[in-house]
Structures are given as structure tokens and as C-alpha cells.
């Protein structure tokens, strides 16, 4: 399976990766169109709902969208996400089992970490890019600064509790390439004009 991007390229595509919880796959395509039009091409669809895999398939039809699966917790979910067309995988944590499965699938992989042991487990697997999760609950910016200090080779996407107002503080940190945000398209929102406007504002954070 050849991948058009690696995880660092994906993280550098836009300052914010929208974290999407989709209950109705019929909303997936117009949602993706609004986000891409607003400038956010990298879309993380969390596997928290029965509609998630169908939503990934729908979003893949949108030109310019780079669609991945989030909340992937085991190799079976990884396989299902890849079969649905996911171009990258995000997990809330990191197990050796999942890490090895993702590496062997050759798919860009962004595992969640919350402490030094998690990062060391990732480094053992050859990973250098991580989601810091849950970012605010796990100690916020001081915690990530302290964690990043001994691991200068690593880069991060903080996710969890970040808002439009606080995102610039996270993005100003050297090891942070992007942030994950659910504020751009809150669960169940179908005001696509507002979502496009929120995406444009999020894009401006990287300017």
C-alpha cells in the first residue's frame, strides 16, 4: 500500500486538524467540502460512532481532502480504517501491538502519548511524531514543554481541550507542528457556512 504522504507532511499541511465525531454519514461529504474550502485539508474522523467508517468513505470523495481515522485502539480497528480508505491513523494511546500493526501496514501513524514512558515506547518502534493527549488534562503547555525537553527528536500534535483562543500558545512551541481541535465542527453541527468560516480562522493561526 503506497501512501501519498508521511505523518510529518500531514501534520505540516495545516495548523489545525479537525477532530470529527460524525453520527450521520450523509453529513460527511458536505462537512469535508466546507472544511477543505476553508483551508483545512487534513480531516480526522474518530471511530466513536457506527457511521465513522462510512463517513471516511464519503469524505474520501472530496477533492483535496486527506482523510484519516482517529480513536483507533487495536489492530482490528486499524484494518477496518485502512479498508475504508484512511490515509493516516490517530490513536488515543500507544500499545506495542497497535504500533507494530501500523508500522507493518506502512500507514502514517500518530499515536497518543501522555508521559515519557509512552514516548520511549514509540521511539523503540521507530516513531517520532506523537499526539499529546489529553493535552489540557495531561498538564497543558508546561507538561508538554517538560516532556519534549529530553526528546528533541520528537514532534507533537497536542489534542484535547484546545480552543481557537488557546491554539496559538500551543503552536508557538517549537516541537508542535499542529493541534487537534473539535471546536471547528462540533458534533452534530450542520451549519456548513459557519464551519467553513471556523476553518478559515484556524488556517490563519499558521500565518
Can you describe this structure?
- With 207 residues, this protein is an alpha/beta fold.
- Helix content is 38%, strand content 15%.
- It has 9 helices and 9 strands.
- A 4-stranded parallel beta sheet has the order 3-2-1-9.
- β1, α2 and β2 form a beta-alpha-beta unit.
- α2 crosses α3.
- It is globular, with a radius of gyration of 16 Å.
- The model has no long low-confidence stretch (mean pLDDT 96).
Outline the low-pLDDT stretches: none
Please, what is the oligomeric state? single chain
Apparent shape: globular
Q: Return Rg in Å.
A: 16 Å
Task: Summarize the topology.
Elements: H1 7-12, E1 16-20, H2 28-37, E2 42-46, H3 52-59, E3 66-70, H4 75-83, E4 89-90, H5 96-105, E5 109-110, E6 112-113, H6 116-124, E7 129-132, H7 140-148, E8 155-158, H8 167-171, E9 179-181, H9 192-204
Parallel strand pairs: 1-2, 1-9, 2-3, 4-5, 6-7, 7-8
Short structural description:
The chain has 207 residues and is α/β, with parallel strands linked by helices. The chain has helices at residues 7-12, 28-37, 52-59, 75-83, 96-105, 116-124, 140-148, 167-171, 192-204, and strands spanning 16-20, 42-46, 66-70, 89-90, 109-110, 112-113, 129-132, 155-158, 179-181. It is built from 9 helices and 9 strands.
Amino acid at each position: 500500500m503506497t501512501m501519498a504522504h508521511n505523518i510529518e507532511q500531514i501534520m505540516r499541511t495545516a495548523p489545525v486538524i479537525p477532530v470529527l465525531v460524525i453520527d450521520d454519514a450523509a453529513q460527511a461529504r458536505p462537512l469535508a467540502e466546507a472544511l477543505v474550502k476553508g483551508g483545512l485539508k487534513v480531516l480526522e474522523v474518530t471511530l466513536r460512532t457506527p457511521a465513522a467508517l462510512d463517513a471516511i468513505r464519503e469524505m474520501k470523495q472530496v477533492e483535496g481532502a486527506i482523510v484519516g481515522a482517529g480513536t483507533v485502539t487495536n489492530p482490528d480497528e486499524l484494518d477496518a480504517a485502512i479498508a475504508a480508505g484512511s490515509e493516516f491513523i490517530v490513536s488515543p494511546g500507544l500499545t506495542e501491538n497497535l504500533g507494530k500493526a501500523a508500522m507493518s501496514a506502512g500507514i502514517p501513524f500518530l499515536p497518543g502519548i501522555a508521559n515519557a514512558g509512552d514516548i520511549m515506547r514509540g521511539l523503540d518502534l521507530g516513531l517520532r511524531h506523537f499526539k499529546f493527549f489529553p493535552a489540557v488534562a495531561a498538564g497543558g503547555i508546561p507538561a508538554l514543554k517538560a516532556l519534549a525537553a529530553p526528546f528533541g527528536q520528537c514532534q507533537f500534535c497536542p489534542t484535547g481541550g484546545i480552543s481557537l483562543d488557546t491554539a496559538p500558545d500551543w503552536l508557538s512551541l517549537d516541537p508542535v507542528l499542529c493541534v487537534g481541535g473539535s471546536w471547528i465542527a462540533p458534533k452534530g453541527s450542520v451549519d456548513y457556512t459557519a464551519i467553513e468560516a471556523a476553518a478559515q480562522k484556524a488556517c490563519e493561526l499558521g500565518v
